[in-house]
Structure to design on (641 residues):
């Protein structure tokens, strides 16, 4: 049934390719470097750039915290979003979140749906790499009735390769109509679906004692051939906008689902310098994670000439349900990394599963003032009601409840046309991280966390078309990691103090430069630190991460070249703070060639990442490591037909 639908969508897109008569450039012009306004984080199409990403903003994960927006509206994302549905995302942090209503600590990930216009646009892309993967995508913007009714749809087929030598097969598709019967009303329903299979898991490396893992072969699958995952991710909903006079109402209703038919985790424990280890395979029965969420926001604009006043009222909520656990642990026994030992797939003895449910409702009011040539400010207050119930095979845990008042205030002052100062204070109630696969209580999620953030900084249009943003921040929240018994639990309070700098723009018409860096002083406090059970540095924290990117266009040739350098300092690797992952720097180089294919715009993109093959590790939890991606090559051809 699912594959039939995919075939039909692909057929529709293929017919569109044949009948297309005119198109404006779409995917052939995708370039995340030239499309970024700062160095904090941006994704466009298949590429991303910035000192922050979806999993790390100021040292925390906005995805885990639940700080996700879709077209600016609250969205509790569970299943991954296909790029057939969204064209990119922006990280809202620092001054980029000053005029953003109802901001959250640790930043916000804001996704953009693929647009629909009055002009027909059909794009195709085929790629090879990285790691030998191949894929094909077709996206279309099809006007049905001028500006009134249009359709965005896309489909993709992939065989992905991964740095750990594993592979995965997947198909994805999305459809998102847009109905705009007048300038004052718009309706955008959407549906997206990803089906994946034969996905080989990345192995977690756990060392013996305080030793770092020995250097092992990368791009090599260390797990069992039968330990593959399959399942699906779905995201669907509707976004509507209604304008009446000076009032605007926006409504978003969503459901996000991750349904896993089977899944495995590969763990190699007690690794010694000679690569001797013990292999464990954790087999999970079918699991389901789903959330219904949405937001209604009503705003009123008062325009008095030099001053613009905005009053916003919002109601948002979610109902999240998870079914997980019941795993079976298979002890493969002693192995030598790189040699391995294959065993026949056993009969699994799955146990009872856990169920949890989260209900949350939030009501908020905000006021924003924009004062021409002077600056802007905003204040907001939210009342949230949170409850979480957990039913485990061992017992029904006490229900967790919280009903805090959350407030925020932001201000930006324009000292001149080129210079502005900003500051903000934000409180939030965020989801806690989920226990990793190497924890004794795998997949367990603790109650919501109350967080707070201060930040301040300066924006300066330094010279030419370059913009400098420099800021400081301070974030506090409870700290979770593995304790001495391997249980994932609260170990204290973590505080992240830091400095972030972005310099971005076009110093010349043919050159784009993006430079960013983040200094982070992360510390843990609490009884476990006072007792000497853990150190003061949280696992995974690195003092500094820096990035520099240039994109140079050769005038009159259609060719451009780009290069990126990333550098990360040493990283705390265990909770006792006795091991550090060494610093490393990697270089990526690439290029584009733009040309006409049958009179239509097309682009060839080549990218060589980690040019020198730099080897390094990342600490994902105390004493648990993953190696970094080796040298890899990608080439794709995109055409707007």
């Amino acid at each position: 049934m699912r594959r039939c639908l995919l075939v039909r969508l692909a057929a529709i897109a293929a017919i569109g390719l044949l009948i297309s008569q005119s198109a404006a450039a779409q995917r052939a012009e995708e370039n995340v470097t030239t499309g970024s306004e700062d160095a904090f984080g941006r994704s466009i199409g298949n590429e991303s750039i910035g000192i922050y990403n979806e999993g790390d903003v100021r040292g925390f994960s906005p995805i885990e915290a639940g700080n996700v927006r879709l077209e600016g509206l609250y969205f509790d994302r569970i299943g991954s979003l296909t790029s057939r549905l969204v064209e990119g995302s922006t990280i809202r942090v620092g001054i980029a979140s000053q005029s953003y209503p109802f901001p959250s600590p640790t930043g916000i990930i804001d996704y953009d749906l693929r647009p629909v216009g009055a002009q027909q646009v059909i794009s195709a892309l085929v790629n090879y790499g990285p790691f030998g993967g191949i894929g094909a995508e077709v996206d279309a913007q099809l006007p049905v009735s001028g500006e009134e009714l249009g359709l965005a749809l896309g489909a993709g087929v992939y065989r992905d390769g991964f740095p750990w030598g594993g592979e995965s097969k997947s198909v994805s598709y999305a459809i998102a109509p847009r109905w705009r019967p007048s300038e004052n009303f718009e309706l955008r329903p959407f549906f997206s679906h990803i089906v994946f299979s034969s996905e080989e898991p990345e192995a977690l490396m756990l060392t013996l004692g305080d030793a770092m893992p020995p250097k092992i072969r990368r791009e090599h699958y260390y797990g069992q051939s039968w330990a593959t995952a399959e399942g699906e991710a779905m995201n669907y909903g509707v976004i509507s906008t209604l304008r009446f006079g000076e009032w605007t109402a926006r409504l978003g209703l969503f459901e996000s689902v991750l349904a896993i038919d089977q899944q495995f985790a590969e763990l190699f424990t007690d690794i010694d310098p000679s690569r001797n280890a013990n292999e464990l395979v954790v087999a999970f029965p079918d699991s389901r994670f789903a959330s219904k969420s949405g937001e209604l926001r009503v705003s009123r604009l008062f325009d008095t000439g030099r001053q613009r006043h905005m009053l916003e009222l919002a109601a948002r909520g979610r109902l999240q349900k998870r079914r997980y656990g019941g795993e079976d642990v298979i002890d493969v026994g002693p192995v030598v990394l790189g040699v391995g030992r294959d065993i026949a797939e056993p009969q699994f003895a799955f146990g009872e599963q856990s169920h949890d449910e989260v209900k949350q409702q939030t009501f908020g009011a905000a006021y924003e003032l924009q004062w021409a040539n002077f600056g802007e400010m905003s204040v907001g207050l939210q009342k949230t009601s949170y409850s979480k119930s957990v039913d485990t095979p061992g017992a029904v845990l006490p229900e967790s409840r919280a009903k805090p008042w959350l407030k925020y205030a932001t201000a930006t002052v324009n000292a001149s046309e080129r210079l502005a100062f900003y500051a903000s204070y934000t409180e939030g109630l965020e989801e806690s991280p989920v226990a990793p696969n190497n924890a004794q209580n795998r997949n367990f999620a603790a109650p919501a966390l109350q967080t707070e953030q201060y930040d301040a900084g300066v924006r300066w249009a330094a010279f030419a078309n370059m913009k400098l943003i420099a800021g400081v921040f301070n974030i506090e929240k409870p700290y979770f990691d593995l304790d001495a018994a391997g249980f994932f639990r609260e170990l204290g309070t973590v505080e992240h103090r830091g400095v972030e700098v972005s310099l971005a723009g076009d110093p010349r018409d043919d050159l784009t430069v993006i430079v960013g860096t983040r200094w982070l002083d992360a510390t843990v406090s609490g009884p476990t630190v006072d007792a000497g059970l853990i150190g003061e540095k949280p696992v995974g924290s690195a003092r500094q991460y820096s990035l520099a990117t240039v994109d140079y266009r050769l005038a009159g040739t259609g060719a451009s070249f780009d290069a990126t350098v990333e550098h990360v300092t040493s990283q705390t690797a265990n909770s006792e703070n006795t091991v550090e992952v060494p610093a490393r720097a990697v270089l990526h180089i690439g290029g584009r060639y733009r040309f006409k294919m049958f009179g239509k715009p097309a682009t060839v993109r080549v990218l060589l990442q980690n040019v020198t093959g730099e080897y390094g590790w990342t600490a994902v939890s105390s004493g648990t490591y993953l190696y970094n991606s080796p040298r890899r090559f990608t080439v794709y051809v995109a055409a707007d037909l």
Remarks:
- DSSP finds three helices and 36 strands in the chain.
- The radius of gyration is 25 Å.
- The chain has one domain: 2-343+350-640.
